[in-house]
Amino acid sequence: MNIDGLSLFPLVKELDAALTGGRIEKIYQPDKLTVVLHIRVPGKTVKLFISANPQSPTIHISSFSGENPAAPPGFCMLLRKHLEDGRIAEIAQHSLDRIVRIDLDVRDESGAITTKSLIFELMGKHSNLVFTHNGIIIDALKRVGLAVNRHRQILPGRQYVLPPGQERLNTLRIPMEEFMATLLSRQDLTLIKAIFGTATGLGPVSVKEICWRANVAPDTPVAGLEPRDIDRIQQQWSSIAASVQTGILRPTVVIDKDSRLLAMACFLLTHLAVYRTKEFSSMNAAAEWVHMTTGPKQQPSGIEALRKPVITEISKLQRKRAVLEEELAEADTAETFRIYADILMAHGHHIRVEPRHPQPENVTLPNLYDPGLQPVIIPIDPLRSGIGNAQKYYARYNKLKRAQQSIRGQLGQLEADISYLESIQVSLDAASSQKEANEIRQELISAGYIARPAKKSRPDTPSAPLTVKAGDGTIILIGRNNRQNDLLTFKIAQPHDLWFHTKDIPGSHVVLRTDSNDPSPQTVLLASRLAAYFSKARYSANVPVDHTRKRYVKKPNGAKPGFVIYDHQTTLFVTPSESEIKSLLH
User: Fold this and answer.
1) Where are the beta strands (DSSP E) in 256-315?
2) How far is the C-alpha of 239 from the C-alpha of 307, rounded, in Å?
3) Is 80 exceeded by the pLDDT of residue 358?
4) What count of Cα atoms within 13 Å lies in the side-chain half-sphere of residue 26?
5) Residue 213: pLDDT band by 50, 70, 90 thresholds?
6) pTM confidence score
7) Per-residue pLDDT tens digits for 449-496
8) How far apart are CA 214 and CA 224, in angstroms?
9) H or E stretch including 97?
10) Most C-beta atoms within 10 A of its C-beta, which of 395, 537, 560, 562?
């Protein structure tokens, strides 16, 4: 979440108003950097989502909490032990910095009420969630030892120390004249560096907006500011500060054409007006939208462990394919050996074996297969007669001809195995739930690529294909692993539905519901782009995608999961758009 302390201020106020007094019902840790608190407030339970992901740290009330691992991590168990059934006493921001403190009233072992705190630091790669009591660290999401930071360790039993940089001014609490006087004293700096060094809570986005509204370049030297520049800076900063303090906000998110997050603020960002701007009713709504749309997607646990044997097996098969292709290239020379043999049979009587005298290692004979009988040089074994050499070439010819058929068969099987494993890779990339990850694991076990666990686990409820609704209301279904692909194509799809798949590229089966009607060209193109996106060619352009009626799709006897054959297809060339697909999926 690209947010500075100034815009974090109203978000924290929203969280404090909504959650103070709420009781902690459950605590979950979907991944190693995320904690979700289920908080009971009057009439409902809400989820406070806290993520210290370095690319997108965030805190907001969320309708989505992700899937939880079967065994909770140690930090989660620690929080459950100390905080479940506790009540939120206050949610506050430290100064105007990117530090949020959640105070919780809990009962200690003696039954007395005590206050413990979760301190969330939203600081990029240094983001962390620290659990403290009376200023002493109990534990943290990310422990920071002496080898990592000599000045500030985050370890159990240590005194909690605020991050450096606390000497800067909180511009919402001091008179504007004091702020401007301190700013103008930094004569040796540019305006943007002087503001950063003076005020806490102002990030690059806010500073550039103030400068833009004041019509002063951010790199202007402080010493070169004219009185009218100073007046405009003070006026524009006072206007933004007043809107934040009074709660008259316009929560805004700015994204580029590829849906990449550019900025987030609690006020309009006029210096980014050329880009797409989205306004929200609250800072929490903006923060949740940013996380769901542009934040890192949580992968089910164990995905990387499944990916490793697949990649290893593909590499092994590719090396074997290279060896077989070399052998096939040699086998393709078989016809030359037959020609040599025929020529030696016709002229072999000219070649005699003279053990006592050295013989040449090749002979020059007329080529029977050349219209002009041009001579050809044939390597021979000087210890064999002409007929003996011909028989040797015939034997080699027959061996290579047999090898051709065998090698081509092996290469065909290798290509099928590589294609199958690449389809598993696509499934791993598309997996969004633990059920789907477990289904892929079971498929790899059944195929013999990973060992079957000694302990039997309870079977999961089968996962369902992904459902997307097109703009005209048409339903498009997407299989995200081979089990779902087979289920979708042969159990769910109707004969008249349109079936999509990337041409000769591993990918998902996609079905466009037609209800016996012909879908619009726009919807067919959308389904084609979805098929391209959920394939190995996700980031390619002009991806060939076949579509046909489902009745023309068949599964050969004994075929691997997800493998089909089809005919009556039409091929479209499409380029998947990640921003379009993400907007459909959310």
Assistant:
1) 261-265, 276-279
2) 53
3) no
4) 12
5) very high
6) 0.63
7) 888 887 766 666 788 899 999 988 899 999 999 999 999 999 999 999
8) 15
9) none
10) 562
Average pLDDT over the chain, rounded to an integer: 89
Burial class (CB in 10 A: 0-12, 13-18, 19+), 63: exposed
Lowest mean pLDDT among 231-240, 247-256, 343-352, 361-370: 343-352
Mean pLDDT of 107-117: 91
**Contact (Cβ atoms closer than 8 angstroms) between residue 16 and residue 91:** yes
End-to-end Cα spacing for the chain: 18
pLDDT attached to residue 66: 66
Give the C-alpha distances (Å, rounded to integers) separating 311 from 484, 537, 566. Answer: 22, 17, 28
**Residues 259-288: pLDDT tens digits?**
788 999 999 999 999 999 999 999 999 999
What residues pair up with 365 in beta bridges, in sequence order?
A: 376
Nearest to 32 by CA among 72, 78, 84, 83: 72
Amino acid found at 402: R
Number of other residues whose CB lies within 10 A of the CB of residue 378? 23
Tokens found for residue 501: 């798949």
For residue 354, what pLDDT band results from cuts at 50, 70 and 90?
low
Residue 247 φ/ψ region, left for φ over 0, alpha for ψ in the -120 to 50 degree band, beta for the rest: left
CA 559 vs CA 366, 535, 584: distances in Å: 52, 20, 33
- For the chain, the residue count is 586
Look up tokens 């690319």; give the residue: 55
Question: To 5 degrees, how large is the angle CA 550–CA 555–CA 557?
Answer: 160
Residue 569, token pair as written in the block: 């297809």
Q: Where are the beta strands (DSSP E) in 475-552?
A: 475-478, 498-502, 510-512, 543-549
d(CA 428, CA 310): 10
Question: Which residue matches tokens 């092994």?
Answer: 316
